[in-house]
């Protein structure tokens, strides 16, 4: 193709070429960023572990595990709550006492996960917004983790693999503080 032919072709296709140059990196960034935060949160952690009933401090807030119950499919409790076959419902109730209001730029929200420590890497389950079962949810309990405000009870639901319910710890984290986390057993 001659130089005038190349220029003509570029001029005819300039809109498509510009769109490709802009949209391709944007699509790549959008598709990778979805998993990036989960990936970062699952890297090695510097965990402070606290026994059930004791209070752990994280980002100025106090956390205490009040109850950690599991209901497996196929058990009488699992049947009563309608736990799906091949899963186990884990219900965590925490007492949260936020500390002083976080400074500008510090996290105000936290993430609660169920973690099964395993050699070679922990197995992690994220909390559900509801139990997806017939478990009677506490309407007075909060469903999301905040590091500011008044003291509250936090209730979180996890659907985990069968047999994992008795092994899980409750992990509190905030994205800006990783790899430091608080684990309640």
Could you walk me through the main structural features you see in this protein, from its secondary elements to its overall organization?
Strand 2 (55-58) and strand 3 (61-72) form a beta hairpin. Strands 1, 5, 6, 7, 9 and 10 form a 6-stranded mixed beta sheet that branches. The chain has 2 domains: 3-41; 46-184, Immunoglobulin-like (Sandwich). The chain is α+β, with helices and mostly antiparallel strands and 185 residues long. Helices cover 24% and strands 35% of the residues. The model has no long low-confidence stretch (mean pLDDT 88).
Which key phrases capture this entry?
24% helix; six-stranded mixed β-sheet; Immunoglobulin-like; elongated; alpha+beta; 3 helices; 2 domains; 185 residues; four-stranded antiparallel β-sheet
């Amino acid at each position: 193709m001659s130089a005038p032919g190349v220029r003509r072709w570029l001029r005819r296709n300039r809109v498509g070429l510009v769109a490709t140059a802009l949209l391709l990196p944007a699509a790549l960034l959008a598709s990778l960023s979805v998993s990036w935060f989960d990936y970062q949160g699952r890297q090695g952690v510097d965990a402070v572990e606290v026994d059930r009933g004791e209070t752990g401090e994280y980002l100025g807030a106090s956390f205490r595990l009040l109850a950690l119950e599991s209901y497996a499919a196929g058990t009488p409790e699992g049947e009563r709550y309608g736990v799906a076959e091949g899963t186990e419902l884990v219900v965590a109730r925490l007492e949260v006492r936020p500390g002083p209001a976080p400074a500008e730029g510090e996290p105000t929200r936290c993430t609660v996960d169920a973690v099964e420590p395993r050699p070679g890497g922990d197995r992690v389950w994220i909390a559900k917004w509801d139990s997806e079962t017939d478990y009677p949810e506490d309407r007075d309990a909060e469903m999301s983790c905040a590091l500011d405000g008044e003291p509250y009870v936090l209730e979180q639901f996890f659907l985990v693999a069968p047999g994992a319910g008795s092994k899980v710890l409750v992990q509190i984290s905030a994205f800006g503080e990783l790899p430091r986390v608080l684990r309640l057993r």
